[in-house]
Amino acid sequence: MEVICVGNELLIGKTLNTNAQWLAKRITTLGLNVRRITVVGDDVDEIAAAVKEAVQRRPSFVITTGGLGPTFDDKTLGGVALAVGRELEENNEALEMVKKTYQRYIAEERIEKFEITPPRAKMAKLPKGAKPLPNTVGTAPGVLVEHEGVRLAMLPGVPREMMAIFDESLAPLLHEIAGDLTFYEASLGVERMPESDLAPMIDQVMHDNPYTYIKSHPQASEKVPHIELHFSTTSKDSATARQRIGRAIIQISEMIKEKGGKVQPMGT
Amino acid sequence: MEVICVGNELLIGKTLNTNAQWLAKRITTLGLNVRRITVVGDDVDEIAAAVKEAVQRRPSFVITTGGLGPTFDDKTLGGVALAVGRELEENNEALEMVKKTYQRYIAEERIEKFEITPPRAKMAKLPKGAKPLPNTVGTAPGVLVEHEGVRLAMLPGVPREMMAIFDESLAPLLHEIAGDLTFYEASLGVERMPESDLAPMIDQVMHDNPYTYIKSHPQASEKVPHIELHFSTTSKDSATARQRIGRAIIQISEMIKEKGGKVQPMGT
User: Fold this and answer.
1) What gap in Å lies between CA A115 and CA B180, rounded to an integer?
2) Residues spanned by CATH 3.30.70.360 within chain A?
């Protein structure tokens, strides 16, 4: 899987990319791997290039965030259309979704009346053959399109809209791809041992536990070197997964204590 | 400019990529543009591919974060070496920096003694012809290397180490590239007006103020539609920049008020 985040606000550092983290965590928890996250600006050619490059790496899925709204700088659908070589055309189902949202705004007395102005119609112009995904908390629908066997899903950049469409429309599709695979993780805190002394122990334990990935994270805030060891594995069977991680934790804990270090369990 | 962040923890959503935001903001404030941010995992081939692709887009600078430490999963220098077609070799200057750090740890009584074990020597193995950048707050030096006219700077993933090396060693180089250019921004809050009604006004004002970029950001937390309009420009001259942004704000404020909307100044 790949994630592409669209928005100048991410490239100027105005906005922290919490969408990327949320998606990465959700996708990982579903048992799938995010191989790459790409951030590009509000530019049709940049978006198209990023989408084309991602498709060439043949992931099962590419998810984009941002750039689906009504303003001129919402360019994701244009970029995707260019990347997959299809025209943008008004999609009736999407237009109905947009209308329904404004009707809801009227019912909620947020606006008094509405008409389908060009900026509003823009949100319903999808690449030919694409399917709109209902946005139950905002205006712009999500979009799903398949190209060369790769499914591309476009989500809005507003976090609660992105989350709602992901959970309602994409999670079930991803769950199908992942099957029974699930991701498991645990952490161990290490004190009184520099990371460079841990390095050969991690090597050894990963060698002895080939399905368990271990990564050390120095915690910068501590004056005394304090390191988080993060253990993860993906498995069909939670008992196997827990066993794998448990075995690796026990093995490395003994090695650390033998060398004078201190370990303590940590929440993940 | 491009930024490449290396780390499985970013791809599984364990860590929020605050490094990318910090770098993007810093680089933008220096008057330069970040064109793309790429996140890849701890994999030599993935890192090498991302670096090669970035170099092919001919940015003035590529900055990487993460993967410089002593453990097996610190693979950035191997990936960069592969991308630029150079061997990794022990760099004396870098080795002296690593030794000095451990000597400082002894002086601070954080460790009792040290020797240059293979994991520690690893931090001083740089692509041939590279220059180490002093790390005044941690162990692994930063690295600077030039390839096909593109400068590549590798920084650690621990935020305070990344920040220190950036500010001490890279900011002066970037300042030279940027010259007198500086980035300016301001924000305006808009109420009682949906984003789709703002869209044509933004179009008009950007058309009339070609050097000013305006982007609307819906604020998801408000029940009443509340939108942040963000204005930015890059200029050699702060008076011109402020004038440009001021003119755009006045023009759009009048258009919004005329249509029944409400505006208020916002901090950026």
Assistant:
1) 47
2) 182-266
The pairing of strands B182-191 and B262-266 is antiparallel
- DSSP of B67-104: --SSSTT--HHHHHHHHHT--EEE-HHHHHHHHHHHHH
Give the nearest partner residue to A71 out of B34, B198, B213, using CB atoms.
B198
Enumerate residues 6+ apart whose C-beta is below 8 A from A89: A125, A126, A128
- Can you tell me whether residue B106 is helix, strand or coil? helix
Q: Is residue A1 within 8 Å of A177, Cβ to Cβ? A: no
Q: Which residues contact B134 (CB under 8 A, 6 or more apart)?
A: B97, B141, B142, B165, B168, B169
Q: Which residues of B touch A13 (CB under 8 A)?
A: 21-28, 34
Q: What is the Cα–Cα distance from B12 to A77, expressed in whole angstroms?
A: 27
The H or E element that residue A249 is part of is helix A238-258
Q: Is A144 exposed, middle or buried (0-12, 13-18, 19+ CB in 10 A)?
A: buried
Q: Tell me the chain A residues in contact with residue B21 when contact means C-beta distances shorter than 8 Å.
A: 10, 13, 15-17
pLDDT tens per residue across span A21-76: 999 999 999 999 999 999 999 999 999 999 999 999 999 999 999 999 999 889 99
Residue range(s) occupied by CATH 3.40.980.10 in chain A: 2-178
- φ, ψ (nearest 5 deg) of residue A130: -80, 160
| Residue spans of chain A under pLDDT 70 | 220-225, 267-268
Nearest residue of B to residue A32 by CA position?
A: B12
Tell how many helices (H) and how many strands (E) occur in chain B. 10, 12
Enter the CATH code of domain A182-266.
3.30.70.360
A142-147 and A150-155: which strand pairing? antiparallel
Question: What is the residue whose two structure tokens read 């755009």?
Answer: B248
**Structure-token pair, residue A139:** 């205006």
**Residue B63: in which H helix or E strand, if any?**
strand B61-65
Residue B222, pLDDT score: 47
A and B: number of Cβ contacts within 8 A: 209
Tell the burial category of B107 from Cβ atoms under 10 Å away from its Cβ (0-12, 13-18, 19+).
exposed
Q: What is the pLDDT of residue A224?
A: 57
What are the residues whose beta carbons fall under 8 Å from the beta carbon of A106, sequence distance 6 or more?
A112, A113, A114
State phi, psi for A264 to the nearest 5 degrees: -150, 145
B2-178 CATH: 3.40.980.10
For chain B (length 268 residues), average pLDDT per consecutive 10?
Answer: 97 97 96 97 98 97 96 94 97 96 87 88 96 95 97 97 97 92 92 89 94 88 73 91 94 95 81
Amino acid at B32: L
Q: How many CB atoms lie within 10 A of CB A151?
A: 18
ipTM higher than the 0.90 cut: yes
Q: Which residues contact A17 (CB under 8 A, 6 or more apart)?
A: A5, A10, A39, B16, B17, B20, B21
Residue B196 with chain A: CB contacts under 8 Å? 69-71, 117, 119-120, 123, 139
Q: Which two tokens stand for residue A111?
A: 């606006």
**pLDDT at res. B32:** 95
